């Protein structure tokens, strides 16, 4: 029932899979009826996770999953007066805030020069020149390209971001040319993915990240997909784009 409620709330996200795994892990650690679980049991679970070397992000997510689970149990059994044993301020370790790490022009050039597949040039361009998240790139279909890029105006691309919110991003003529070259070499219908795998299905996030790691090894540099997005943001700020406009472009 908990899984079904999560999938109703977030049908297109992996929240249900991760939260269910987290709750089952706690159940193995503390095999009690939910009504008998105490704050001390959550303390012990967090302490055990830290002893095993779980990252701060992993612990935070597992605490969040348990909090939502106990809220669900209370609501389903009409036990709303029972205190939730999970207390985020007590149980969720704080994570230090790190500044985004963008990339130098030299690093970008080194990677670009070793990308020898036109499809891979497309996803690299979409993250660097349009600020797309890796999940947004693999979800693109050819129909999402709303207009070409003539000499005076940029191309428009429809993107579905987090929370299924749509936005329009823009591609300069040279960025659009990368997509157009790929489309000319690999024709497809409106529903075809922009970045397909060998079977014609959309690339997976892991598959795309693996291709980027391959090119980074060839270039002798270290680059992540999210760094390309941060670099896009930094370049626009340097060209005096208002931050509010940048926020809309990046979703």
Mean pLDDT rating: 89
Biggest beta sheet attributes = 3 strands, antiparallel
Q: H/E series, N to C?
A: HHHHHHHHEEEHHHH
The helix content is: 55-70%
What proportion of the residues form beta strands (DSSP E)? Answer: 5-15%
Over all CA atoms, what is the radius of gyration? 22 Å
- Identify the overall geometry: elongated
Number of helices: 12
End-to-end Cα distance, whole Å, is 32 Å
Secondary structure category: mainly alpha
Strand order of the largest sheet: 1-2-3
Q: Using DSSP, what is the number of strands? A: 3
Low-pLDDT regions: none
Please provide a written account of the structure.
It is a single chain. It is built from 12 helices and 3 strands; from the N terminus they run ααααααααβββαααα. The chain is mainly α and 251 residues long. The chain has a 3-stranded antiparallel β-sheet with strand order 1-2-3. The longest helix has 21 residues, at 56-76. It is elongated. The model has no long low-confidence stretch (mean pLDDT 89).
Keywords:
12 helices; mainly alpha; three-stranded antiparallel sheet; single chain; 251 residues; elongated
Compact summary:
The protein has 251 residues and is mainly alpha-helical.
Helices and strands in order, then pairings?
Elements: H1 2-9, H2 15-29, H3 39-52, H4 56-76, H5 88-91, H6 105-114, H7 118-130, H8 134-138, E1 145-147, E2 155-160, E3 166-171, H9 173-185, H10 205-219, H11 225-238, H12 243-250
Antiparallel strand pairs: 1-2, 2-3
């Amino acid at each position: 029932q908990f899984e079904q409620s999560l999938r109703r709330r977030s049908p297109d996200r992996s929240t249900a899979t991760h939260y269910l795994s987290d709750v089952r892990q706690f159940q193995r650690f503390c095999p009690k009826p939910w009504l008998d679980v105490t704050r001390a049991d959550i303390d012990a679970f967090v302490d055990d996770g830290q002893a095993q070397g779980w990252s701060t992000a992993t612990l935070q997510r597992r605490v969040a999953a348990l909090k939502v689970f106990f809220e669900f149990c209370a609501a389903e059994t009409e036990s709303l007066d029972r205190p939730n044993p999970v207390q985020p301020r007590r149980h969720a370790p704080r994570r230090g805030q790190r500044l985004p790490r963008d990339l130098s022009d030299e690093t970008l050039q080194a990677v670009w020069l070793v990308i020898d597949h036109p499809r891979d040039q497309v996803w690299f361009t979409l993250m660097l020149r349009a600020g797309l998240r890796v999940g947004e790139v693999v979800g693109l279909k050819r129909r999402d390209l709303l207009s070409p890029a003539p000499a005076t105006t940029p191309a428009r691309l429809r993107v579905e971001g987090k929370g299924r919110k749509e936005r329009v991003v823009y591609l300069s003529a040279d960025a659009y040319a990368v997509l157009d070259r790929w489309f000319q070499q690999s024709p497809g219908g409106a529903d075809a993915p922009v970045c397909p795998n060998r079977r014609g299905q959309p690339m997976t996030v892991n598959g795309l990240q693996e291709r980027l790691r391959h090119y980074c090894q060839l270039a002798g540099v270290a680059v992540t997909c999210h760094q390309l997005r941060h670099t896009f943001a930094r370049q626009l700020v340097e060209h005096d784009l208002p931050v509010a406009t940048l926020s809309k472009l990046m979703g």
